[in-house]
Design brief:
- This protein is of the alpha+beta class.
- The chain contains eight helices and twelve strands.
- Strand 1 and strand 2 form a beta hairpin.
- The longest helix is centred in the middle third of the chain and has 19 residues.
- 29% of the residues are buried.
């Protein structure tokens, strides 16, 4: 587009122009957008000062551009267009042209020094360039918001020095010792004080690789883990016991207790108590545990005082019965729920010394005697409180016929609040040769009912390795089907002469 008038210099940056220029070679300003001359002749051009080549310090002298001076024409249309700012950029209030009421509209330009503080101000008549406007923060008010005119600035304009504080501004006072400290910003938590990560659970007993979570299931294979009473083992220097849940029951309702103590004459007494919870009763596992623990505690209290073993055994069974009876006063199920009855269990126990073997029982748990000389005859030392035993004792059925009946294991004697009448059975023996006492529940003797069958299963070294012998018997019952809970205690006879140190039970 051809211009209607000729410009000698760019109205934005004062770059000299040629007659054929359509755009400024210095700033790229569109010269065709410059409005034409006003109808009235403009006033005389101002007397421009001659800029020096240097300012005396070796630095180029500042050059004043035409845009730094106020307009000298009366027509407001001769004013330069306000440069368009990029979208989203606003100039702060401080960047707007200062409005000094003491200076007239046609006053001369304001001197702005671009030198450091140590350099003197330029002499009169020397002009300095204005500082470029600072980059406004987002959201700050712009000059276009208030209508103020902001003159265009060159990208090479010097940066003004940092403004100094006003002389009348009070200096910040130092905090006094009595002043309350300001609230410190919240510090990040110290990782050393953070709680340690939870320890991984135990290894799965089924797959051996996964970890067990808080619910008792393996995180890898998903199998439920055995509960503490699902498999239990105890070993003392003179006896051992093992109990297992079996393969068909959902919990282990058997319990046992083993201990050893010194008698008044210095001999050692080994005590084994085995109890079998009645599955048809409420809380049979609690009944068997209470009976075993109570009977053991009673024997350990009476034997060191010199109580005869037969009497101590009877008293222990009676106290165990009282402990089981007390469970009936602690209902767990809601009263309106049907099927709640008294907890019940069977009990069998043995006391083995250097020259005496005492057994006691209520129910159908048993004690077997197996001589160390396997050519000698083994014996069963207890009689069951059961329907089959009564049929055999009354000579109504043979032993084979009685135990083949479906009512064979119906017990006629037990510990519990609903028992007909407590009749503890006790017996004492003086074996003439060494041997092993096997105390067990029907979960074992169902697969080895006769004394000969039990003797055939018992390892020959049971007198010196009772724990291995007990494990062997339990494993046989599991391999035979494991239809019931299995508990067995193995006690060598006679017991060693030296006192036995008590261990954890």
């Amino acid at each position: 587009m051809a211009r209607t008038h000729q410009l000698a210099a760019c109205p934005r940056c004062a770059e000299p122009l040629d007659a054929s220029d359509l755009y400024c070679g210095g700033c790229g300003y569109d010269l065709s957008a410059v409005p034409g001359p006003p109808a009235d002749p403009p006033s005389a051009a101002p007397d421009w000062p001659q800029a020096r080549e240097t300012d005396g310090t070796g630095r180029p002298a500042p050059v004043l551009r035409a845009s730094d001076l106020p307009a000298t024409v009366s027509d407001t249309s001769a004013r330069q267009e306000e440069p368009t700012l990029p979208e989203g950029v606003r100039l702060p209030e401080e960047a707007r042209a200062p409005q000094d009421p003491a200076v007239g509209a046609h006053a001369g330009p304001r001197h702005v020094s671009d030198r450091p503080a140590e350099h003197p101000e330029p002499p009169d008549g020397d002009y300095a360039l204005a500082a470029p406007p600072p980059v406004p923060p987002p959201g700050a008010a712009t000059a276009s918001d208030s209508g103020a005119h902001v003159p265009a600035q060159s990208a090479s304009a010097p940066v003004p020095p940092r403004p100094e504080a006003a002389p009348d501004a009070p200096a910040p006072s130092a905090p006094t010792p009595d002043a309350a400290p300001s609230a410190a910003p919240e510090a990040a938590p110290d990782p050393r004080l953070s709680p340690p990560p939870p320890e991984p659970g135990p290894v799965c007993a089924r797959c051996g690789a996964g970890r067990v979570d808080a619910d008792g299931y393996c995180e890898r294979c998903g199998h439920a883990q055995p509960r503490p009473r699902d498999h239990m083992e105890r070993e003392l220097s003179t006896l051992a016991a093992v109990s297992d849940r079996g393969l068909r029951h959902h919990r282990n309702e058997d319990a046992f207790a083993v201990a050893a103590t010194a008698l008044p004459d210095g001999a050692t007494a080994a005590v084994a108590v085995v109890c079998d919870g009645v599955s048809s009763a409420t809380r049979p596992d609690a009944a068997s545990l209470a009976a075993a623990q109570t009977a053991e505690a009673a024997l350990m209290a009476s034997l060191p005082r010199g109580t005869r073993p037969e009497q101590a055994m009877r008293e222990a069974i009676e106290q165990a019965a009282e402990a089981v009876n007390a469970l009936a006063d602690e209902p767990v199920l809601p009263p309106e729920e049907p099927g709640q009855n008294a907890p019940a269990c069977t009990l069998v126990a043995s006391i083995v010394t250097e020259e005496l073997l005492v057994v006691g029982w209520v129910g159908d748990s048993r004690v077997y005697w197996v001589p160390a000389d396997r050519s000698a005859t083994p014996y069963r030392l207890t009689e069951d409180d059961s329907w089959a035993a009564q049929m055999v004792a009354a000579r109504l059925l043979s032993e084979a016929e009685a135990y083949a009946d479906e009512r064979a294991h119906a017990i006629t004697g037990w510990l519990g609040a609903d028992a007909y009448e407590l009749e503890p059975h006790t017996a004492a023996f003086r074996p003439e040769a060494p041997g092993t006492v096997v105390v067990c529940t029907d979960g074992l003797w169902n697969y080895a009912e006769s004394a000969e069958a039990m003797a055939a299963l018992l390892p020959a070294d049971s007198g010196s390795r009772p724990l291995d012998a007990a494990r062997t018997l339990v494993r046989y019952a599991l391999d035979s089907g494991g239809h019931d809970n299995i508990t067995v205690a193995v006690v060598p006879y006679p017991t060693p002469g030296e006192p036995v140190r008590l261990e954890a039970r």
